[in-house]
Amino acid sequence: MYKARLIGPDERNAFDKFVAWAPKGHILQSFEWGELKGKGEWQPLRLVVENQEGKMEAAISILKRTIPVLGKAIFYAPRGPVGDVHNEELMDFLFREVKGLARKHGAIFLKIDPDISVEDEKFKNYLHKRKFISQVTGKGFEGIQPRFVFRLDITDEEEEIFKRFHSKTRYNIRLSGRKGVEIKEDCGKDELPKFYKILQETTERDKFLVRPYQYFVDMWNSLFPEGYLKLFMAYYEGQPIAGTLAFLFGDKAWYIYGASSNSHRNVMPNYLLQWTMIKWAKANNCGLYDFRGVPGDLDEDNPLYGLYRFKKGFEGDYVEFVGEYDLVFSTFYYKLWNTLEPLYQKNIRRLIGIKKKLKKRAGN
Predict the structure, then answer these.
(1) CA atoms within 13 A on the CB side of 253
(2) Which CATH number characterizes residue 358's domain?
(3) In the structure, what pLDDT confidence band is assigned to residue 140 with cuts at 50, 70 and 90?
(4) pLDDT, tens only, 97-135
(5) Which helix (H) or strand (E) holds 167?
(6) Is residue 181 helix, strand or coil?
């Protein structure tokens, strides 16, 4: 009934078209996202399942990473698979094909974190019946992708969407405009260094890590030509004070990165930036705007609570996904991986910390 095959660059457009307009399609399953990750330590593999007429029924973009020393690999499908996840026959066929692919590539397991709500009991039961192992992450940002997000339905008219915002959010959007903040929407690649400089300022203030500048250049080169990436910059008195990067794919948009300067925070550029992005998404026929990650721990003492409060002001839906699940192909190596990987991550974080301290000292 079904047949599966790997696809190459010549079928990029057909693959993206299917993934973009599938009910649970996601930018992280796009052909271009695989190209971006392929510039680092991952190798993209795109598998499609077709019916007898050659029509795509399901797809999964897998990122393969080789494990040093062990000579094995891991498979990761960010926000995959794509297709009718409630069609058990289809999903069974897809995962059987992935298992065959894993044998060829020496993969220990496949990790998925699909765009499926935790309330979808039918899909969770399917995963449990098929021996997927749930990987419980914390209520912060411990997972690979955010487990908790805010999502805004933008199918209504702009006026109605704006009315639903919290009164303080509406006030801050108007305040930003009155204060003279200008949002530049037609940003080219020449604006990217300005954005990254502000992003570095943000990371130092809020104490989180950021990828190297080259990663953002690669992201731009991979996604911007296809119309999947857009940069917004906020200017005040002729100076850039904030910026955001957004994804657009099919009928969905995602707020992916945000940066704000320590200067002129009183003119509330982040609020006007978000409203501008929402209007841009709507103008591009999106029905969903995703604010991305928020904490699951909503205690006001949580350092991330301010992020939650900011995004909540736009009155989106607070969504928890099913989280990460592993389909294991080698029990022995999977146990070994779960023992060694935390030690590896701990050492990487320690080395990054040392590097930052040395860089800071060198700058003094």
Answers:
(1) 27
(2) 3.40.630.30
(3) low
(4) 999 999 999 999 999 999 999 999 999 999 999 999 999
(5) helix 167-178
(6) coil
- Domain extent, residue 222, equals 155-286
- How many helices (H) and strands (E) the chain has is answered by 11, 15
Q: Is the pLDDT of residue 50 over 50?
A: yes
Total domains in the fold of the chain? 2
| Claim to verify: residue 260 and residue 242 sit in the same structural domain | yes
Q: What angle do CA 351, 357, 360 make, to 5 degrees?
A: 140
* 135/159 same-domain check: no
Range list of H helices, 61-120: 88-105
Query: What does the pLDDT look like over 238-278, one tens digit per residue?
Result: 999 999 999 999 999 999 999 999 999 899 999 999 999 99
Q: Token pair of 19, please?
A: 């993934």
CA–CA separation, 94 and 115 (whole Å): 17
Domain shared by 272 and 359, yes or no: no
CA distance 70 to 37: 22
Distance (Å, whole) CA 1 – CA 22: 20
- What is the pLDDT, as a whole number, of residue 363? 52
State pLDDT tens for residues 156-215.
999 999 999 999 999 999 999 999 999 999 999 999 999 999 999 998 888 778 899 999
Domain co-membership, 76 together with 100: yes
CB 31 within 8 A of CB 46: yes
Q: Of the candidates 236, 247, 358, 251, which has an alpha carbon nearest to the alpha carbon of residue 292?
A: 247
Q: What are phi and psi of 263, to 5 degrees?
A: -90, 145
Q: What is the pLDDT of residue 141?
A: 59
**In degrees rounded to 5, what are phi and psi of residue 228?**
-95, -10
